[in-house]
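Sanity check. The docking grid for guanosine-5'-diphosphate depends on where the pocket ends up, so I'm generating a full predicted complex first rather than guessing from homology. Inputs follow.
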Amino acid sequence: MKLHEYQAKDILGKSGITVPNGQLVTEVDQATKAAQIINGPPWVVKAQVHAGGRGKGGGIRLVQYPYEVVTATEALLGNRLVTRQTGPDGIPVNQVLIEEGVEIDREYYLGMIVDRSTACPTMIFSTAGGMDIEEAAASSSEVILKEPIDPAAGWMIHNARNLLYNVDPPLPIGAVRTLMAVMGSVYKIFMTLDCSLVEINPLALTKDRKVYALDAKINIDDNALYRQKELLLLEDAREKDPLELMADKYHINYIRLEGNIGVMVNGAGLAMATMDMIKMAGAEPANFLDVGGGASEDMITKGVEIILKDERVKAIMINIFGGILRCDVLARGVVAAARKTGIQVPLIVRMEGTNVEEGRAILKESGLKFFVAKDLAKAAALVARQVSEKGLKN
Ligand code: GDP
Ligand code: MN
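Predicted complex below; grid placement will be based on this.
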């Protein structure tokens, strides 16, 4: 689950990290008042969306006059913002954060993630912070320092030293102490709130050696939300993929991916294996969809409906191992969904296990057009052929 910048800054501020004064507005009318309350000039007007790259996409406006606070808010609120992380249609801006502008001397990057290769929470620090951090990281990886933290030992001061004393050129002396404190707070937030990401970019140093978190991103591990009930209240459902919301409602595990093959499977391991097979056959899955081991006919129908609502899907592959979920139940669900949605794309079904013959008979007798594949490799090859150029011409 992603938090908005203003929510993340609230958390940082409460743990002692300095953030600029700001006010969230949801109506243009509120902008005039906000400009009066908040110190300026300059002011910074910031679109609150779950995507980065806002600065380069026009979602961050640095302005000098109160009337510009209003016009900038007007330009953002209710419109769609396109950044390199949103796709060409952009995402709607429902909220805008108006902040006091800070005079930046240097921009640092501070982040924390779980590094899968070391299986450790890892702090990342760079003196090449700001909007060009990705380019800096790509061209010279030595500008990005990483420090794995042994979670059993916890955060220790030498972790901060490893990061802060290894940068070139060295940091101004006055900044080191504050940056150490910020790092300790970030570690604590990351661990206590079950984060998958905490990122401050830029972490800005002013001429008078004050350190401000000017931007903040916090993502919470969805699997820990059961014990982060207070954070759950911060969820902005408007920012969620509507198909993922629909899947949540029916307790279906669904994640949107980049390809064009809709995939429905029962069981997460089988889903991953199926996606691997599709990739090996040269195609790309459009989603991960796991209906779970004990799915009902209704869940199967809903699963197919969710896949078909995704306009990019050019073929569907259903791979079910009938255990608790019997193949006849699956077949009925698929036929119901195909009838209800008037399915137009090729549908490849591979199933094995309990009541498989009965399931196949139901598909056959439905009179609808299904491809039934006997094994997974054949199914994957068949589905890949449907979306290849040759398949589309046929
Ligand atoms: P992002 O592009 O989505 O990461 O949005 P940010 O919140 O990081 O803003 C983009 C850039 O705007 C930052 O990298 C800063 O250079 C600049 N910026 C943000 N806040 C301020 C501010 O208070 N003063 C100044 N001068 N620049 C700011
Ligand atoms: Mn940023």
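Relevant for the grid: The pocket of guanosine-5'-diphosphate (ligand 1) is lined by residues 20, 44, 46, 52-55, 60, 62, 101-102, 104, 107, 130-131, 201-202, 214-215 (CB under 6 Å).
Also worth noting: The domain at 240-393 is CATH 3.40.50.261 (Rossmann fold).
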